[in-house]
Design goal:
Elements: H1 14-35, H2 41-55, E1 59-63, H3 66-76, E2 84-88, H4 94-101, E3 105-109, H5 123-126, E4 131-134, H6 146-156, E5 159-163, E6 171-172, E7 175-176, E8 183-187, E9 201-205, H7 208-217, E10 222-224, E11 227-228, H8 239-249, H9 252-269, H10 271-276, E12 280-281, E13 288-289, E14 295-298, H11 302-311, H12 341-347, E15 350-353, H13 361-375
Length: 376
């Protein structure tokens, strides 16, 4: 009987991560169940303190997911009908979706060809008298070029909200993701560098009034039971998810270092392909500390290469193959194809290779061999 072949190399491996912390995680979850503190509660409050401190910020407000985190930040900053939000189309839909949900209009600017992050040189021209916020996306595990963005925002009196959903622990010129704007939204979706065991999110800010507003907004506009100051929402951090996140937060820096080591391993294994120009690596500027939520390369004939990798048991990904301005959901914005040339070119080329802290040398070599075979 023929063998079934080696196990696939998955894009992420949450089972391996769980195995490494099983006893502590199980105890943390049991602690919450024993106290029956399932919504917010002590675990959530402690996680908020710990995560704010980790980010170098004064406050963290836990909520139901990363999309809600963005909405809470938008609303608390007064962004709504009639407002415009400048962001990028090379991101997950939540960045712009949350703006639309509060009544604002996303305005897309192109990304840089080297990092695929917001091109700060395009921002000024996109500002109008309706611009309420600039939302740089810290994509793939590294921060956007924040200094010029912050300078423009300060000079023009515009808010900055960091979309840090893929950048837990990333740094820009010595500053943590989440510590630079008026607010920053994080997702703790299970596959993130800091992931819950379900949906969860948080907003980080240094503004106490903003934090207080969002704490009420996540809990039906209420600071105390049956006293509702305004119409809010139900987006409270789950006690079990907070307990899971507390266990994982202690290991985040070590896991990020393991991701950086895995990325360096790929850099070496694929160096000749990069040097020859057969594939391109997304740049990682020296002033950024990349935490490699994803390891992304740009390849010609990407869809065929993707299919061949998956046929070979390499579970690659694509982040993101359809830019937001070309999504049916945003057809009403009237942004034509061809208007964001760098974004559109990148969307046809980006390929995410398997990467997680537990990735072995053997798995990395197997990925590299399969990629070479697909390129041939």
């Amino acid at each position: 009987m023929a063998g079934t072949g080696p196990e696939p190399v998955n894009l992420v491996d949450l089972k391996a991560q769980y195995a490494s912390i099983k006893d502590e995680l199980d105890a943390a979850i049991s602690r919450v169940i024993g106290k029956t503190a399932f919504i917010l509660g002590e675990e959530a409050a402690e996680f908020e303190k710990e995560f704010a401190a980790y980010c170098g910020a004064a406050h963290a407000v836990g909520c139901g997911n990363g999309t809600d985190a963005l909405e809470l930040a938008y609303e608390a900053l007064g962004i709504g009908p009639g407002s415009e939000v400048i962001t990028v189309a090379h991101t997950f839909i939540a960045t712009a979706e949350a703006a639309v949900r509060v009544g604002a209009r996303p305005v897309f600017v192109d990304v840089r060809d080297d990092t695929l992050l917001m091109d700060a040189s395009k921002v000024e021209a996109a500002i109008t008298d309706r611009t309420a916020a600039i939302v740089p996306v810290h994509l793939y595990g590294q921060c956007a070029d924040m200094d010029p963005i912050l300078e423009i925002a300060r000079r023009r009196g515009i808010r900055v909200i960091e979309d840090a959903a893929q950048a837990h622990g990333a740094m820009y010129k010595g500053r943590r993701a989440g510590s630079m704007g008026d607010a920053a939204a994080f997702s703790f979706y299970p596959g993130k560098n800091l992931g819950a065991y379900g949906d969860a999110g948080a907003v980080v800010t240094n503004d106490p009034a903003l934090a207080a507003r969002m704490r009420k907004a996540r809990d039906h506009g209420s600071a105390s039971k049956y006293d509702h100051e305004f119409v809010g929402r139900n987006s409270r951090l789950d006690g079990i998810q907070a307990a899971v996140l507390r266990v994982k937060l202690k290991r985040l820096d070590a896991w990020n270092e393991a991701r950086r080591a895995a990325a360096a391993r790929y850099d070496g294994l694929l160096k000749d392909l990069f040097d020859s120009g057969r594939i391109r690596r997304v740049a990682a500027p020296h002033h950024c500390r990349h935490v490699y939520h994803l390891y992304v390369v740009r390849v010609p004939d990407r869809d065929r290469v993707f299919e061949e990798l998956n046929a070979a048991g390499i579970r690659a990904g694509m982040h993101y193959p359809v830019p937001l301005h070309m999504q049916r959901a945003f057809a009403g914005l009237g942004v034509p194809e061809g208007s964001l040339p760098v974004t559109e070119r990148a969307a046809a080329e980006v390929l995410s290779l398997p990467l997680y802290p537990e990735l072995t040398d053997a798995q990395a070599h197997r990925v590299a061999r399969a990629l070479r075979a697909a390129l041939r």
